[in-house]
Write a structure and sequence with these properties.
Component of the SWI5-SFR1 complex. Interacts with RAD51. It is a single chain. The chain is mainly α. Among the domains are: 37 residues; 50 residues, no CATH class. Helices cover 55% and strands 3% of the residues. The chain has a two-stranded antiparallel ribbon. The longest helix is centred in the middle third of the chain and has 35 residues. The chain is flat. It starts with 7 loop residues before the first strand and ends in a 10-residue tail after the last helix.
């Protein structure tokens, strides 16, 4: 089955649309199978190469794991405790939430007064870096 082009009015009778068919696709001389310009390795060679690259990647990941384990041990030796870190992160999230609400309220107040939030900072003894 040959693909059809869109219907378009022909130059025939006024108000009578006609069909105009166009052949879609590549000409026959270009319909040959695609050949990649990149040479493909032989199947045995490809397996060896992928095996080697996987082994190298595994070795690099093991080395990274060992480095991270050493860093963790060093931090624990310096007195850092994971549970304290989790508490600190939780408190930082709470602080950021409260600060966001404060910024929203300052923005609403500035809007009501017709000023910028920057102009409100001195009134509330806030530093611009707060």
């Amino acid at each position: 089955m040959e693909p059809r082009a869109l219907q378009r009015p022909s130059g025939g009778e006024p108000g009578t649309p006609g069909l105009r068919r166009a052949r879609l696709g590549l000409p026959k001389r270009h319909s040959a199978a695609f050949r990649s310009p990149v040479p493909t390795p032989k199947s045995g060679q490809a397996d060896e190469t992928s095996e080697d690259s996987l082994q190298l990647e595994i070795q690099e990941l093991k080395q990274k794991r060992d480095t991270l384990d050493q860093e963790i041990s060093q931090l624990m030796a310096e007195g850092y405790v994971v549970s304290e870190l989790e508490d600190h992160i939780s408190l930082l999230h709470e602080y950021n939430d409260i600060k966001d609400v404060g910024q929203m309220l300052m923005g609403k107040l500035a809007s009501i007064r017709g000023v910028t939030t920057k102009e409100l900072y001195p009134e509330f003894d806030l530093d611009m870096n707060d």
